[in-house]
Amino acid sequence: MDHHINPKKAALTAGAFIGGWHLVWSILVALGWAQAIVDFVLWMHMINLPYVVKPFDLSAAVTLVLITTLAGYVFGYIFAKIWNRMHRS
Predict the structure, then answer these.
(1) What's the rounded Cα separation, in Å, for the pair 15 and 45?
(2) Radius of gyration in angstroms for the set of CA atoms belonging to the chain, rounded to a whole number
(3) Cα–chain-centroid distance for residue 48?
(4) For residue 5, which phi and psi values (nearest 5 degrees)?
(5) How far is CA 19 from CA 14, 23, 27, 71, 82, in A?
(6) How far is the C-alpha of 36 from the C-alpha of 42, rounded, in Å?
(7) How confident is the chain (89 residues) per 10-residue block, as mean pLDDT?
(8) Cα-flanking dihedrals φ and ψ of residue 33, to 5°?
(9) Given its phi and psi angles, is residue 46 left (phi above 0), alpha (psi -120 to 50 degrees) or beta?
(10) Alpha helices of the chain — where are they, by DSSP H?
């Protein structure tokens, strides 16, 4: 069985997933639903912290999505390279 992972595909997959997750978060902030979600998640974990979601800022949202997509790409690529090195025949 071939355990090889294509580093570019892994990088694109991780980048799309992590960037997409943060795109969804940005949309939730823009819709005004993010604070309720944060409050619910903290309540489920029995945590009381004074986190306040700030108003939507397009430049912050674009920066968040771009940086997390890039970070996901880099981590996915590095993961695949390490995986392939550890599974050499």
Answers:
(1) 28
(2) 17
(3) 24
(4) -115, 130
(5) 8, 6, 12, 9, 22
(6) 10
(7) 91 98 98 97 95 97 98 98 91
(8) -100, -10
(9) left
(10) 7-31, 34-44, 58-86
pLDDT score recorded for residue 2:
79
The amino acid that residue 88 corresponds to is R
What residues contact 22, with CB distance under 8 A and at least 6 apart? 64, 65, 68, 69
83 near 3, Cβ under 8 Å? yes
- The contacts of residue 45 (CB under 8 Å, 6+ apart) are none
* Identity at 9, one-letter amino acid code: K
Answer whether 0.70 is exceeded by the pTM: yes
Residue 7's pLDDT is 97
